[in-house]
Automatic annotation (TrEMBL):
Domain DUF8061 span(s) in chain numbering: 261-330
Domain of life of the source: Archaea
GO molecular function annotation: catalytic activity; iron-sulfur cluster binding
Protein name as catalogued: Radical SAM domain protein
Organism: Halobiforma nitratireducens JCM 10879
InterPro entries in the cross-refs: DUF8061, MJ0021-like, rSAM, rSAM_sf
Length: 331
């Protein structure tokens, strides 16, 4: 089963809102957060550091977001921020803008009510790994029913450390709507602690951990309410499709969009008047403070024919930071 939130994410249409970097109650050895996210109070919309509400809305519009996924931290400050941003995106995009929250605490009825009133649609719980298999009869079972009573769709989202049949029991009992299992991954933020626990990278893979995938699929994979999300899919599909959505929205008429969702254009320090003299249509170039950006194929042609001396083809991400992926000199 794939939930509405996951369906939007698979399309690249889910904005990821990171609201807080401190966890008061948990210190998971597999936490993937890097230095710029762990133990910080900064907010990020996708990869963009947020300075104002307008930054969040601009990022959502940039990618033509279908919904918002919220994650990060446990303290009261994180709850307050989550409710604020829920109200912000719902006011801007309407009730059809799907929202889900990933959390490592139960929170209680009052917090469930606040989240529901603020506009949260779906809540995904991540119980402590040490309690897997012994969640029945605890606050983790209670909160599933409480969340549903307060108008939320309760679910589990867990890292694929190992298979755990108890999650299937919660699904069969009707307590949880679905269970997402994310392929176990190593990152810069958890690599050292993961190795100390005896985990290693899968051969020929940048992030997936060796060992657990087959067991999880054998035990949990056939259940229609379980969805296993691979690290390859996250990187190759979700991230790339999000970039493509951005690229379609921000591209200029002369920008090319690649299959990876990057933008390609030409850049030269030639005198802008040269373009006017050559009769280049205005839609094929734009003048910046100290250079000209132009259709890459046109720049290549102009250099080959001797109309311009040199330049370069630039490939960059369509996100707010606009990181350059590659520069190819032309002369």
């Amino acid at each position: 089963m794939i939930s509405k939130g996951c369906e939007q994410c698979a399309k690249g249409g889910k904005m990821v809102l990171f609201v807080y970097g401190y966890c008061d109650q948990r210190d998971c050895f597999y936490c993937p957060l890097g230095e710029n996210r762990k133990n910080v109070t900064d907010v990020y919309a996708n990869e963009r550091r947020v300075e104002s509400d307008e930054d969040v809305l601009e990022e959502a519009h940039r990618m033509d977001a279908l919904g918002t996924s919220i994650t990060g931290g446990e303290p009261q400050e994180a709850l307050d921020r989550t409710c604020h941003y829920l109200e912000l995106v719902k006011d801007e995009f309407g009730e059809d803008h799907h929202t889900h929250l990933y959390t490592g605490i139960t929170g209680g009825r009052e917090n469930m009510r606040r989240l529901s009133e603020a506009g949260l649609d779906e809540i995904r719980f991540h119980p402590p790994y040490e309690q897997w298999g012994e969640l029945h009869g605890t606050e983790w079972e209670d909160i599933l029913y409480i969340a549903r009573e307060e108008g939320l769709t309760p679910a589990f989202e867990i890292p694929g450390i190992r298979a755990e049949a108890e999650f299937l029991e919660f699904l069969d009992e009707g307590a949880a709507e679905f269970c997402n299992v994310n392929e176990f991954e190593m990152s810069q933020g958890n690599y050292r602690r993961m190795q100390e626990q005896g985990y290693e990278l899968k051969e020929d893979h940048m992030s997936a951990v060796d060992g657990s995938r087959e067991e999880i699929l054998d035990v949990m994979g056939d259940h229609e309410q379980v969805y296993f999300c691979t690290s390859v899919f996250k990187d190759a599909a979700q991230h790339r499709r999000r970039l493509k959505r951005m690229a379609r929205n921000v591209r200029r008429e002369f920008d090319d969009v690649t299959d990876d969702g990057t933008l390609v254009y030409g850049k030269t320090h030639a005198d802008p008047e040269r373009f006017e003299t050559l009769g280049v249509p205005e839609e094929f170039y734009t003048v910046k403070s100290n250079h000209v950006e132009v259709a890459w194929w046109l720049l290549e042609e102009m250099i080959e024919e001797g109309d311009l001396e040199d330049g370069e083809i630039v490939e960059q991400y369509p996100n707010y930071e606009g990181q350059v992926v590659e520069r190819t000199p032309l002369a």
